[in-house]
Design a protein that fits this description.
This protein is an alpha+beta fold. Helix content is 41%, strand content 16%.
Length: 621
């Protein structure tokens, strides 16, 4: 008998239906030589300190650092989990072979490997690796099962991550709680959580310490168009007034009109982070809410595997794209087919194959998030919003670039030069797909407003023309950097805190991002649960406790995005077999030993203030 194990009951039912295991049993399905069972996400976890030695049960500075000789796993304390595991264990010990049908990613690999280890499975193991839950993908996956050994580096990376988080989290949390938490408040420290909090706190300090300074801008209105002085801001009013006096009463003359043609490529397909960013900007969805919605769309077979960090498709997906388009063409919401008119112009000719979309070298485990071609139906409003973004982004990828012309007009009044730029869309290309009939989007953000200003069309100006104008000298104030939103925080985590506009450079920095795309939403939620940050509309604001905690931490290792980014890079290298997992763990052991030594040597009498909502909290980890 072959035992297949999936990550949740709904996925197991789909697999069982495809492979003919149609008889329901207690905790599994059976038939056609298969038994299909399931976990509920993690059934096992790394052992807790007290599982290794009774000495580590009570929190004590003298016991730190706690570093087990060998890390072990145990079942999570839960009656439902124990009951399901007993069924899995019985099936696995009698099995002729096992198919690991866990989610096709690092975490999915770890979940099922731990279950197989705990059940002491001895038979050969194959791996099902699929990027969507459609019937066709499951059938194809079962025809191409791989040996589990091929995924050993993925498992070792997941295991190293879990052990690394244990070493740092367990030790640093106890260390800081005992040393600075007045013994009444748990100070939770984490390998990714603490640098993320530091990003928010540091930004907030910049804002709090910001001193607005006045500056003056000289502009003039000529033919209902505002031109701004090219010499920029004036730091004091006298300079501005002196310039103003040079132009007052003098005619305005257009000295140059330049038109430059430009092209804008369609935006790249979605990875998880860019989807979370857009959903936060457009609909105000939290990173966790977007992850839950896209996971639901994946399980309903409408979109591909979501926990991805690439925005490319492998070349073998190209032949499937016409079929996906056909599925979108047939998709209807409320009796309307929102994509039919957008897909019609692409019909009757081969879809374009662009290296910005199809590049096998940029795809490792999974490709970008795209529709599967199964016509979507029965979606909640929120699911429909997310699906709509993915569908439009996919369709737009096959559209021509947007063509525009940029007009720069220079003018002069007296000796002062002025400038205005405008952008005229000549052929919208892919923009038709993104912006037409997207009534479900919320009103534009500030950045959309700036884009609209940038894209205004100017009246026709002719070099040499002149006429009266109305100059103004306006006092303005410098503004602090903006608070993080979930969208901008996700981007900062992706690039280890470096602010990068350029898409290609950002893609290169992803190697050193902090946290995995799939874990970042959970990290942000943890900071809310710990009361280290709170939401004010879309803003993420650090609480006094969050600020104090970062101030307390003198050990740069614990709060540096760059250092955490280097750890993430090493974990990726373990996955790609270019770094030794044992070396990664040994480095962390040395680092936590050094951190413990530094904190214990701290003689400053620093303490954290208790927040009202936290006074009730017990000692938990």
């Amino acid at each position: 008998m072959i035992v297949c194990i999936a990550e949740k009951p709904s996925v197991a039912r789909d697999i069982a239906r495809i492979i003919g295991a149609n008889a329901s049993r207690q905790g599994y399905m059976e038939g056609n030589g298969y038994q299909v069972t399931w976990t509920f996400g993690h059934l096992c976890t790394l052992k807790e300190p007290h599982d290794y030695t009774p000495m580590w049960k009570s929190w004590s500075l003298s016991a730190l650092p706690m570093i087990p000789q060998r890390f072990g796993i145990k079942l999570i304390e839960d009656e439902g989990i124990k009951k399901q595991f007993a069924i899995i264990e019985k099936l696995m010990q009698a099995a002729d072979g096992i198919v690991n049908c866990g989610d096709a990613g690092q975490e999915g690999e770890l979940i099922q490997r731990w279950v197989m280890q705990k059940a002491q499975a001895k038979c050969p193991v194959k791996r099902l690796w699929i990027s969507s839950m459609t019937d066709e993908a499951i059938r194809e996956g079962f025809q191409q099962l791989k040996d589990q050994t091929e995924y050993q580096p993925l498992y070792l990376a997941g295991l190293s991550r879990a052990i690394g988080d244990w070493i740092l989290g367990m030790n640093a949390t106890r260390l800081y709680t005992l040393k600075y938490g007045q013994n009444r408040q748990v100070l939770s420290i984490g390998r990714v959580q603490t640098p993320t909090l530091a990003l928010i706190v540091n930004r907030q300090k910049e804002i709090d310490n910001f001193k607005p300074e006045p500056y003056w801008v000289l502009s003039t209105i000529y033919r209902d168009t505002t031109f701004t002085a090219t010499q920029g801001k004036f730091k004091n009013k006298e300079e501005g007034e002196a310039a103003f006096s040079l132009i007052e009463g003098k005619p305005f003359e257009v000295t140059s009109v330049q038109k430059k043609a430009g092209k804008e490529l369609p935006p790249q397909l979605y990875d998880l982070t860019s989807l979370q960013v857009d959903c936060n900007k457009k609909f105000g969805y939290s990173a966790e809410m977007t992850l839950n919605l896209i996971q639901s769309l994946y399980e309903k077979k409408f979109t591909t595997y979501p926990r991805v960090d690439t925005q490319y498709l492998s070349d073998d997906i190209y032949p499937k794209c016409p079929g996906i388009m056909n599925g979108l063409f047939q998709t209807k919401f409320g009796g309307q087919a929102p994509y039919a008119d957008l897909i019609r112009p692409l019909g009757g000719k081969p879809l374009k194959k662009d290296k910005k979309v199809f590049d096998t070298s940029k795809v490792t485990d999974h490709h970008a998030i795209i529709p599967t071609g199964v016509p979507a139906q029965g979606l909640s409003d929120a699911e429909q919003h997310v699906f709509d973004l993915i569908a439009r982004r996919f369709i737009g990828a096959f559209y021509p670039e947007c063509k525009f012309s940029t007009t720069t007009v220079l003018g002069k009044a007296g000796e002062v030069e002025f400038k205005v730029t405008g952008k005229e869309i000549l052929d919208p290309g892919w923009r038709v797909v993104q912006y037409v009939s997207s009534s479900q989007q919320q009103p534009s953000d500030e950045d959309d407003k700036e884009k609209k200003d940038e894209e205004r069309t100017l009246p026709t100006f002719v070099k040499g023309e002149s006429g009266p104008h109305t100059p103004t000298l306006t006092e303005k104030m410098t503004t602090p950097p903006p608070y993080y939103t979930e969208a901008t925080l996700l981007r900062a985590m992706e690039t280890a805190g470096k602010f990068v506009e350029d898409e290609e450079l950002r893609a290169a920095l992803k190697e050193n991002g902090i946290g995995r795309p799939s874990s970042r939403a959970g990290i942000i939620e943890t900071l809310f649960k710990r009361h280290y940050i709170r939401r004010e509309r879309k803003r993420l604001v650090a609480t006094p406790t969050g600020i104090e905690l970062i101030d307390l931490i003198k050990e740069e290792l614990l709060k540096s995005c760059e250092l955490t980014g280097i750890w993430e890079k090493k974990l990726r290298d373990i996955e790609h077999k270019t770094y030794d997992p044992a070396q990664f763990i040994n480095e962390l052991k040395q680092q936590i030993t050094e951190i413990v030594r530094q904190v214990l040597a701290d003689n400053e009498n620093r303490r954290i203030t208790l927040m009202p909502e936290e006074k009730k909290k017990g000692k938990k980890q």
